[in-house]
């Protein structure tokens, strides 16, 4: 959600946050803490909430 809001607000400079979020998600799968579907569902939900929140303001 934070990466989505930053991307909508700050544009190209927010790619660092998006890359960080992708690395965290990948590390969770590699460490065996989550399944890939869990990461995809969380990323999708966070993106939808980010777009919804941005549309409110």
Describe the structure concisely.
With 57 residues, the chain is an all-alpha fold. 81% of the residues lie in helices and 0% in strands.
Outline the structure in words.
The protein is mostly helical. It has helices at residues 2-10, 15-30, 36-56. The chain has one domain (2-56). Helix 1 runs antiparallel to helix 2 and helix 1 (2-10) crosses helix 3 (36-56).
Total helices: the number is: 3
Report helical residue fraction: over 70%
The unreliable regions are none
In what range is the share of β-strand residues? under 5%
Question: N-to-C terminal Cα separation, in Å?
Answer: 15 Å
Q: Which geometry do the CA atoms define?
A: flat
Oligomeric assembly: single chain
On the 0 to 100 scale, the average pLDDT is 88
Key phrases:
mainly alpha, single chain
SSE topology sketch:
Blueprint lengths: L1 H9 L4 H16 L5 H21 L1
Helix pairs in contact: 1-2, 1-3
